[in-house]
Amino acid sequence: MARLPLVAMLVLFTVAAAAPDCRSSKFPPDRAFQRCSTLPALGASLYWTYNPVNATADIAFRAPQRSGGWVAWGINTGRGLGMVGSGVIVASQEDTGAVSVLTTVLESYSPSLTNGSLGFDVPVPPVAEYAGGAYTIYVTVALPGNSTVQNTVWQAGPGSTGAIRPHPTSGQNLQSMQRIDFLAGQSIMPSNSGIP
Ligand SMILES: *[C@@H]1O[C@H](CO)[C@@H](O)[C@H](O)[C@H]1NC(C)=O
Ligand SMILES: *[C@@H]1O[C@H](CO)[C@@H](O)[C@H](O)[C@H]1NC(C)=O
Ligand SMILES: *[C@@H]1O[C@H](CO)[C@@H](O)[C@H](O)[C@H]1NC(C)=O
User: Fold this and answer.
1) What span is annotated as the signal peptide, if there is one (predicted)?
2) Tally of domains in the chain
């Protein structure tokens, strides 16, 4: 392998580590979203269309991951910005490669991951897919408290369905939380930003 000058290598690594602009992401035509946010950790992005009539948001969460790992996205309805108390959707793969989702409220830093309620309504329950080295979770959420600002969390770690293992507890895995304003974000279609 040819040796690259140090400056060139630094540039390459910088480019590789930066999350792509969420507006450049591709979705199938029946999964179009009006807004997005490039999240500050784990290369993840959030996409959504907010429906004020019924206070719901059609959401996609996308994050890169190895096929032998899991990703999760959720909302903390009670205790501010943090893991414990969050209702989360975990996407992982079975040995066959089939993608499954688990919904749970994280009751502690060693959660039981019991597949059950999220603690908020999902009029369209979550599904997930794995393609191009990334998981995408699709879900429609009735925004808790009819509030367009929510404390959101996301995560990535090792393990497959039925054998989810703990995520790392350093670096970006401790920075993966953010208050999201569903009326803000980046407009994916500036000329078409109203409600259709
Ligand atoms: C949500 O709040 C808005 C503004 O206060 C209100 O107009 C709307 O009816 C509420 N929607 C639901 C589903 O509670
Ligand atoms: C969790 O429960 C839902 C609804 O019954 C089901 O579709 C899903 O496959 C379950 N997930 C796991 C990981 O068992
Ligand atoms: C909420 O409103 C949107 C826009 O009118 C509609 O497409 C969607 O089906 C509604 N969702 C629910 C769960 O009623």
Assistant:
1) 1-18
2) 1
